[in-house]
Specification:
By secondary structure, the chain is mostly helical. The protein is 81% helix and 0% strand. The protein has helices spanning 8-35, 38-63, 69-98, 101-124, 129-152, 156-177, 187-208. The mean pLDDT is 93.
Amino acid sequence: MKKNLFEPTTFVSNIILFLMTLVLGQKISDVYRQSFHPFHLHLSWSFYAVAVGSIIGALFHGFGPHFSKLTREWIWKGALICMGFTTFFLMMAGVSAVMSYDYYRIIMWVAVIGLVLYGWQTVKFAGFGHSVKFIAIGMIFIFTAFATLYWRQAHPGSGYLFAGVLLTVASGGLWATGWSIHKQFNHNDLFHVIQMVCLWLLYQGGVMTVTAQLPR
């Protein structure tokens, strides 16, 4: 009998991530409609970028072998593009939380150029190595920004945000090792489960962080 669904655990965890980020992203968007601060705007869109990437990931891992090699390559590139957008929006959320609006705008345009270069190299080159370099640089900025926020204001919201980012960095390192609990629960599945915790922490931090605690 022909196999219809490949990597079912990875497929299901991607679907859960999609639903989770869609709901939590909408809740953060509701906060943005009250605050009108770029922090909440960027944080909500980082969740939406994860949602789109999760659907693409579910398609790739669940049904990838049914497609041609070229189609699989472009599906994977779509997932990488979403990772780039997630990194961009989360980085800009961190920057807008610790810098004045004028500095935030300058850094945003520099980050946009970086995002365009990331998209170009993702489309041009095969594999994952080039993309990892860009994402790693982005994660350094993200970690620095949210660590600075927590250092300046050790309130519960900044604590949740810093914990979420710290766990994201740690889970990325664990994913890179390829370590798996079981053959039916591989490193991708473990990463997705940890990411659910990270996203919940980031969500809690986002809704707890009010406009009065953010620069204008």
